[in-house]
Amino acid sequence: MENALALTALNKSFPSHKVVDGISLNVPKGCFYSLLGPSGCGKTTILRMIAGFAEPDSGEINLNGKRLNGLRPYERPVTTVFQSYALFPHLTAAENIAFGLERRGEKPAEIAPKVKRMLELVGLEHRADRVPANLSGGEKQRTALARALVVEPELLLLDEPLSALDPALRKRVRLELKQLQKQLGITFLFITHDQEEALSLSDQIAVMNKGKIEQIGTPQEIYLAPATRFVAGFLGAVNWVDGIGIRPESTRISRQKPAEPTKSTTAKVVTSTFLGDCFHIETTTENGTAITAQVAFNEEPFAPGESVHVYWHASDELPVRG
Amino acid sequence: MNRLRTIFLAPSAAFTVILFLIPLSIIVAYSFLTRGVYGGVVGPWTLENYQRLFDPLYGIILWRSLVMSTLATILCLVIAFPLALFIARASDRAKGIYLYLVILPFWTSFLVRTYAWMFLLRDTGFINTILTSLHIIREPLPLLYNETAVVVGLVYGYLPFAVLPLFSNLDRLDKNLLESAADLGATPWQTLYKVIIPLCAPGLRAAGVLVFIPCLGAYLTPDLLGGGKSIMIGNLIQNQFTTARDWPFGSAISLALMALVMVLLVSLLRQDGEEAL
Amino acid sequence: MKQSRFLGLFAALVYAFLHVPLLLLCAFSFNSSKFTVWEGFSLEWYRQMFADTQLAEAAWNSLVIALASTVLSTIIGTLCAYGLWKRGSKWLSGSLYLSLVTPEIVTGISMLAFFQWVFRYWQVQLGMHTVILAHVAFSIAYVLLVVMARLRTAEPALEEAALDLGANEWQAFKLVTLPMLKPGIAAAALLAFTVSFDDYVITAMVAGVDSETLPMVLYAMARRGANPVVSAISTVIFLGFGALILISDRMQKA
Hints:
The complex is a heterotrimer of chains A (322), B (277) and C (254). Chain A is built from eight helices and 17 strands. A six-stranded mixed β-sheet of chain A has the order 6-7-8-3-9-10, sandwiched between helices. Chain A has a five-stranded antiparallel β-sheet with strand order 13-17-14-15-16, with no helix packed on it. In chain A, strands 2-1-4-5 form a four-stranded antiparallel β-sheet, with helices on one face. In chain A, helix 2 packs parallel to helix 4. With 277 residues, chain B is mostly helical. Chain B has a single domain, classed as Orthogonal Bundle (MetI-like fold), CATH 1.10.3720.10. Chain C starts with a helix and ends with a helix. Chains B and C meet through helix 1, helix 3, helix 4, helix 5 and helix 6 of B and helix 1, helix 3, helix 4, helix 5 and helix 6 of C.
């Protein structure tokens, strides 16, 4: 597939430390691409360099074959959905959406239908004349999205756009966002520290840590075959038994020694917590390794102090290299 | 962006350099020069103007300025603190009105406010007229043109400078803290001494400096309410530049005053950081 | 929290201290007697005030100076605040804050010394122009203070969003930041107007024969002795500023 965005050997240092350390990555056209990593890993700095709010110390930023380095933010065919939305408080939702079109010198007659179509697309026709202060959190988020999309950017940058929403709303908006991206076919570069968000939305994910890329791959590849211990741990809970990683949901517990040819060890139950759809059971082995297992709730509950066998299938071991 | 920023800063930078920094530099230069025969400024370079600051004739004026400013500052703090406490404890709606009432006289002309005290204090003024007509006194009391009148005028003029920082300090205090102190058996007075006043140290310092600085440089108040007898540094400077026509000495006094102001401000900033202002 | 009786009484006394002198002054401006004994209601002093051509001229001068310096210092100070908000400049902000705490008399004599020095080489004299220049110079710092306070609460991402959507730096300032700053700029202008209209110390130093201002005339009248006309002028100034604050308050709320 043809690449939209290509970052080559990007470096950026702040006085105290190096925030972006030799980043290279390619974002295919029409892809929903996520940069996933903990806060301070450099993902926001990368976004700011692509948008033009910061310049890299070295390295290249190319978008559809055009070099973006050195261009002012308003000269780049890239728009951003900000974490805080950054809606203009003195303008209505419709005026916010029209802002970018006006800057491109389009005539009011051309702008009006585009704004109207965009409002319909994000379901805000009835909120067109409200200023941001009178919009709900979800409506603000959709206005910010509409404002950035209406100018038909070659690349849309999204800086943790869901983090300001409450959890219930976040899941719904996530679905809408994914549908919108498929419908419009615009390339999305999505910045997040929430692994669930990245896994559920993305076509491809680059996991970052301390200014470097740890792994690039599809959500399945990254979750099931993490390249490094960091990736394995960042995407979900992991039990580390003699250097081998197993996810709690792949870990089994039984009172008898398992008959199947599996890897197993004996352990004592420390706590058992009922989570509704499953039990969360923490155990320790004789040499003190902590192993957590998630067990379906229809089984007979394990009690703290009970001796058990902990086992798993070799095929469920995470093939972590580093 | 840098080009736009440069354009935006250029006019203010020009005004600051031409009408503040250069004039101040001229004063610095003058302060090391000698008064000419007809009042001009001539060579040679000398430190004599600074030595004259310690002449008892002028020293007493500097000393009086310090004493009166200190007195006015203490009075301002003593008056402002309970008032600020009162406002901080009021309901949110009432707070706005109470603060407004503190600032309101401040928005009228300083001259008008000073004149109001001349109107009250002069021999034929409001207070003397009332007291005479009630036969409490036969001769008018000499209320105006003395140091007391000047201190009253200074307190009146700069009280809002003390109320506002103290209010913002008190308003930020956790109400629960005050209530829990009472719960633990502290009387209101103990709460005040052991809890509120120590926590208000930054506000008290800021209020003190904000009142003391304009008091020290006051010109109109001692001039109108003090008459010729209670003049302060500001009047001395004005006098050197007009009647006495000794610009070098006037410049030296100005710089001594600036130095005092700077020392005060720097010590405040050292203590409380930039938030203090 | 319950207010203590003591605090309430104390506050009432302080408010009396702050307001009664001015209220008495205003009240006696309507007294028919020249003395501080109430004899009856009269507008005599107001009639005299309006008949005084020197007073009218001074008031006009003050108004012209205050308006000119307000417009200039508000524009210059706002641009300065914006520039410093983008990236600080220690020497400029330091100098401006220093000018704010410099005693007026020192500012006055240093400007006088400066103008005298300049006029040795340039055949110009003290007048309205020097007063306006001086007022702009000392008002910029007040405007900076008020507008900067507003900018500090602003969200930096707003301008980035504007640039991101294709606005250049000037458009981002004009279309996004400036509208947001409006209330702050209005408050700054009001403050600049007040400090200019009220100033005596600096003005008296740099004014020429043709540029006598209202505070200068008031000062001269006040020094000459009791004069109910001064009370009348005070009342008008008092009411004028009161109205100005009320109007600006309403405008900010609207």
